[in-house]
Design brief:
There is one protein chain. About 10% of the residues lie in helices and about 55% in strands. By secondary structure, it is mostly beta strands. The strands form eight sheets. A five-stranded antiparallel beta sheet has the order 1-31-30-29-28, with no helix packed on it. Strands 23, 24, 25, 26 and 27 form a five-stranded antiparallel beta sheet that branches. It has a four-stranded antiparallel beta sheet with strand order 2-34-33-32, with no helix packed on it. Strand 11 and strand 12 form a beta hairpin. The radius of gyration is 23 Å and the shape is globular. It starts with 7 loop residues before the first strand and ends with a strand.
Length: about 525
């Protein structure tokens, strides 16, 4: 089982293996998510950024650092600044032009957005005041360790997703350009009687595709989901789409821009009258919609017939035994084929969770702990042609991982939350457009007979129309780790050694024939 926050791993080095290493010293406090890859205009790795606390100073002050390395782990720039001890990094992001850091200080009731260029020079500061109710909701997010607040717009700017203290709780999407464009804000109605929140699932150079969730109160399961498409240049609503329970219920999981100025929605479709939070879907759908909201084309792919046929199983129960599929990414190749990269998962009973839930029901003082897990198993890749017809399915063996579901509702809804919290084994997909390759990367825990279980960094490689696997075994150490994409054909392992106050970096080459 993989635990990204407690389990720490080092790559096993051999004399035959190519490796580059580097080290960042004097790191007092570092959170792994406060690092990332810097990409060039072709989305190749051009370097890395790291944000960390260097030192505790007098009078409640702290010294922070932003450090940049190139793709070969050579330092490019390092800048430090002083801030209040209660300031912490909510989220960081890179948009090919520069970086933005969302810094929160709840005691001072504000969020500060800091913009930096590729040389770590400060290019802009924006202060956002917070109301007490907004702070309480952000503190709930803080407990999970993930803030759904900052989204890059490639080569253009950043979008900040802010909670708003309206009649109830609402939201605003605030756009901050970095290319000289115009700022804008898209907000929910101030006098809405519903609690409204928004989750952008696709942000690109033309549009923002987001799911708006509306419910009468925080714990209600009566949720209305509306898909909203916004012009990223103006902030104007292009169209919105609600898939109702009574007619055409659907759950959108992915969205991306097509070549002809249209948006592709992908997800699961249900029987009329079904509840997408409770019932099992009939299959997958893809829907191509133009910027006016008109459906150009749609395809329905059934679990019972289409998927079962390609998986070569005769009984639908065999598919149900695998559970559900969560698709992390969709890649378009140079030949205009599409590959959807996913993992199987299903909801399972947690003995410990059940005991805690019973204790809570008896007044034992335990919080809202779920009695179930999400059990994550094999990786799977669906291949579609240029018309989104399903052509093939390929599965890749992977060990089981478990994550607490906290009973968010259906397994599908829990999977969205667990993905945001980083509990799936999937790490990232790297695309090499020049060679028409992509690399879908996972952390896998292998249970081996007759020897000690091992963890591995597993990569599914698409090359010349074929899918193959490569893996690098990992060995356990008392450190925390994160993997990032490296220059093409490589992977970077980022490790934080809390005792030595240092970040260790290992750049490893993948085996590509």
């Amino acid at each position: 089982m993989k635990n990204k926050f407690l389990l720490a791993l080092l790559l096993m080095l051999t004399t035959q293996m190519y490796c580059q290493t580097s080290k960042i010293n004097e790191v007092n406090t570092f959170v792994l998510r406060n690092s990332g890859a810097i990409l060039d205009k072709n989305k190749d790795v051009d370097g890395y950024y790291f944000f960390y606390m260097m030192d505790k100073l007098k009078k409640g002050k702290r010294e922070f650092a932003i450090q940049l390395l190139d793709k070969n782990l050579v330092e490019v720039a390092k800048k430090t600044y002083i801030d209040d001890k209660n300031t912490f990094l909510m989220k960081s992001s890179f948009n090919n032009q520069g970086m933005m850091f969302a810094m929160a200080n709840f005691s001072k009731e504000k969020i500060t957005l800091l913009s930096y260029d590729k040389q770590a020079n400060l290019t802009g500061t924006h202060e956002i005041p917070l109301e007490s109710k907004e702070i309480k909701y952000y503190q709930l997010q803080q407990a999970s360790g993930d803030f759904n607040v900052l989204f890059p717009v490639e080569d253009k700017g950043f979008i900040f997703n802010k909670l708003e203290d309206n009649k109830k709780i609402g939201y605003s999407l605030k756009y901050y350009p970095t290319d000289g464009g115009k700022a804008w804000t898209y907000s929910s109605p101030e006098k809405s009687k519903e609690i409204l929140s928004i989750n952008p699932i696709e942000v690109n150079k033309d549009v923002v595709v987001a799911l708006e969730f509306s419910r009468p109160n925080l714990l209600s399961r009566k949720v209305t989901i509306t898909t909203i498409v916004i012009d990223v240049n103006t902030g104007k609503l292009l169209f919105e789409r609600e898939y109702s329970k009574s007619n055409n219920p659907r759950l959108i999981t992915n969205a991306f821009l097509n070549n002809d100025n249209s948006v592709v929605f992908m997800g699961e479709y249900f029987k009329n009258g079904d509840n997408i939070f409770d019932d099992r879907s009939l299959g997958l759908f893809t829907e191509i919609i133009d910027f006016s909201g008109k459906t150009i084309k749609e395809n329905l792919i059934t679990w019972k017939d289409d998927v079962a046929k390609l998986m070569k199983v005769k009984e639908v129960s065999k598919i149900k035994d695998k559970g559900y599929i969560y698709f992390h990414d969709i890649v378009r190749t140079n030949t205009n084929e599409y590959y959807a990269i996913g993992e199987y998962y299903k909801k399972t009973i947690s003995a410990g969770g059940t005991a805690l839930a019973v204790l809570g029901a008896m007044g034992g003082g335990v919080g809202n702990v779920g009695a179930t897990n999400l059990t994550i198993t094999d990786a799977v890749i669906f291949k579609f042609d240029s018309e989104f017809q399903l052509k093939s399915i390929k599965e890749f063996d992977k060990g089981k991982s478990k994550a607490p579901s906290y009973d968010f509702g259906s397994p599908q809804l829990s999977a969205h939350t667990m993905s945001a919290l980083g509990y799936f084994d999937y790490e990232y997909t790297q695309i090499d457009k020049q060679n028409d390759r992509f690399y879908a990367c996972f952390i896998d825990y292998e249970r081996l007979k007759g020897e000690k279980n091992k963890s591995a960094f597993k990569t599914i490689i698409y090359d010349e129309g074929e899918l193959t696997e490569d893996k690098i075994y990992l060995s356990n150490k008392d450190k925390t780790f994160k993997v990032l994409p490296g220059k093409v054909g490589n992977v970077l392992l980022v490790e934080y050694d809390k005792k030595k106050k240092e970040i260790n970096l290992h750049l490893e080459k993948l085996n590509i024939k």
